[in-house]
Design the sequence.
């Protein structure tokens, strides 16, 4: 009865790679949207200077770190949370739950309602980050996927749906 083999769960390398790529591109898209979209600009304007937040999976990542400097510029700071002062941590309980959100099986508000997201920091700033995430997801995704990713699909004017979306894509790919 004492001879048994302990089995540890395997790693999901493909899911982790997918999440790392998605968070990298999503962070760059947040940076791009903060420069070209008035809605994202206004959300970041309400945040304090030198504000940094991270989004990731507990316990060991992957992560996305975005910060606003003292001049009001928003920058994607990479995926490392070591040696940084992070004011707002938004962590999903495990990488599988983060995968559900970034594979658009579940929206961020639904994940929050199902208690899959930990927030360490100010709640109003966390709500602002979720609103920013929703706007960026609408920019990045086609309408049929964006409807699954956000709570309500917005009725934006044609310019915002087309020109600003194109600018976000170009800036996210170019890193501007």
Sequence:
């Amino acid at each position: 009865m004492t001879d048994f083999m302990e089995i540890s769960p395997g790693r999901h390398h493909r899911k982790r790679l997918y999440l790392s790529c998605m968070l990298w591109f999503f962070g760059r898209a947040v940076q791009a949207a903060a420069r070209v979209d008035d809605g994202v600009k206004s959300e970041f304007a309400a945040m304090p200077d030198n504000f940094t937040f991270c989004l990731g999976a507990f316990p060991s990542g992957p992560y996305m770190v975005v910060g606003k400097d003292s001049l009001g510029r928003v920058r994607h700071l990479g995926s490392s949370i070591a040696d940084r002062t992070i004011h707002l941590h938004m962590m999903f309980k495990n990488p599988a739950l983060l995968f559900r959100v970034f594979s658009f099986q579940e929206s961020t508000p639904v994940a929050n309602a199902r208690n899959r997201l930990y927030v360490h920091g100010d709640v109003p700033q966390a709500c602002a980050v979720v609103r920013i995430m929703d706007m960026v997801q609408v920019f990045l995704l086609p309408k049929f996927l964006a409807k699954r990713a956000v709570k309500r699909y917005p009725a934006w004017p044609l310019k915002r749906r087309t020109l600003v979306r194109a600018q976000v894509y170009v800036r996210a790919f170019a890193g501007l």
In short: The radius of gyration is 17 Å. The chain has seven helices and five strands. The first strand starts at residue 51 and ends at 57.
